Every structure is written in structure tokens, then in C-alpha cells.
Amino acid sequence: PLGPEDRARLIALVRERNPGFADQLERFDRDAPEASGRFFAGLAGRLRDMSDLEKRDPELFDLRANELMASFEVMSIVRDFHRLRRENGDQAAVDAQQLKVKEAFSRQFDANMRIRQREVADLEKRLSRMRDEIARAGSESERSKLVDEKTRAVLSGRPSRPGPGPDGPRGERPERPAREPEKGREPPRTP
Q1: What is the pLDDT of residues 5-58, one digit of tens each?
Q2: How many Å apart are CA 39 and CA 2, to the nearest integer?
Q3: Sign of dihedral through CA atoms 48, 49, 50, 52?
Q4: Quick check: 13 and 65 in contact, CB under 8 A?
Q5: Cα 153 vs. chain centroid, distance in angstroms?
Q6: Which of 17, 135, 4 is nearest to 73 (CA)?
Q7: What's the pLDDT at 157?
Q8: How many Cβ atoms from other residues are within 10 Å of residue 154's Cβ?
Q9: Host H or E run for residue 69
Q10: Helix, strand, or coil (residue 182)
Q11: pLDDT tier for residue 175 given thresholds of 50, 70 and 90
């Protein structure tokens, strides 16, 4: 569940992009706390992910925030459409609201596609780095050097430099001294 502090952060994020909708969220939170609690609980994971993303990748954060706003807008407009239809309002108003629903879904779709385009570009960069690493590590001299380095590191009891792996290139890690066994305990031995 999203606590009051997290709800306030989410509403502040919304307020930066759409102050009117932020006011609606605050009223919803105040007037229907149970429903609001369920709504915000559903957003808890996304909010945590976005909080981390804001620090790591501000550009992608903005794309995701815009997509989240588009989702909120869809919810609000669809709710208004159903309210108008239920109240047997003026058919022209219902038709106009139906058009607004379509436009909101269009904006949400576009926001989602911008995220996907960015993710594809990121994957392409990662794939390129992986291919470069494979090409470098594929030479016989580099292969021998990496194997010798890992062998020396393991036999000396110190961690080795990470090599190519399924998750792509990894950064250098600082070497740490080998851990001394605790007094009275022998380190495990391999057969």
C-alpha cells in the first residue's frame, strides 16, 4: 500500500504536469478513502520504480510520467463518460465525451509508443556493446588472457574481474582482500 507520504509525492508529480487532475486526485483521496486506497495501492510498484528511475534516467522518467498521466486522464474521462450515460444526459454530450475517450486513448497510446521506442533504442545500444565485447573476447589472445586471469584470481582466493556474461558487459569491481576464516572454523574444501 501507498502511505500518505508516497501519495503526496505522486500527487505532486501529477500536479507538475496537470494541476487540475492533481486536484481531482486529492478530492478522490479525501472523499473516497477506501477506493482511493485501492487505487493508490495499485500504483505503489510503479511509483517506487519511477522514484528510482528519476535518479537513474530522467529522460525515461519523464516519458513514463507522461504515460502515467495519460492513463490517469483515460480513467477520468471514461468515468465521466459512464456518468453521463448513466444519468441519461444529453446524447450530444455523451457523443462528445465518447470522442474525448478516443482522444485520451490516442494520447495514452502515443505516450506508450514513445516509451517503447526509447526501450528499443536502449536495447540496441546494449546489444551493440555485447557484440563488441564478444568480438574482443573472441580473439585467442584475449580468451587466454581472461582464462589465465580468472584462474589466478580463483586460486589466490581473490575475486576475479567479471567477464562477458548473459547480462551484457559488467563494470570493473574493486578487488577485495580474501576473507580470513573465522577462528575455530575452517573454510569449506572442495573434493
Answers
A1: 877 877 887 788 778 878 877 887 787 778 777 877 777 777 777 777 878 898
A2: 9
A3: positive
A4: yes
A5: 36
A6: 17
A7: 83
A8: 11
A9: helix 58-86
A10: coil
A11: very low
CA distance 150 to 152: 6
Which residue is it, cell 547480462?
A: 167
Q: How many residues in total does the chain contain? A: 191
**Cα 19 from Cα 39, distance rounded (Å):** 19
pLDDT score, position 1: 62
Taking the C-alpha atoms of residue 181 and residue 191, their distance in angstroms, rounded to an integer, is 19
Q: Which residue has the higher pLDDT, 138 or 93?
A: 93
CA distance 62 to 102: 23
- Segment 97-148, tens digit of pLDDT: 999 999 999 999 999 999 999 999 999 999 999 999 888 877 778 888 888 9
Please tell me whether residue 119 adopts helix, strand or coil conformation.
Answer: helix
**Residues 35, 28: contact at Cβ < 8 Å?**
yes
- Residue 67: alpha-carbon gap to chain centroid: 12
Contact 98, 78 (CB under 8 A): no
Note whether 115 and 60 are within 8 A (CB): yes
Whether the pTM exceeds 0.70: the reply is: no
The set of cell numbers assigned to 127 is 546489444
What distance in Å separates the CA atoms of residue 71 and residue 13, rounded to the nearest whole number?
14
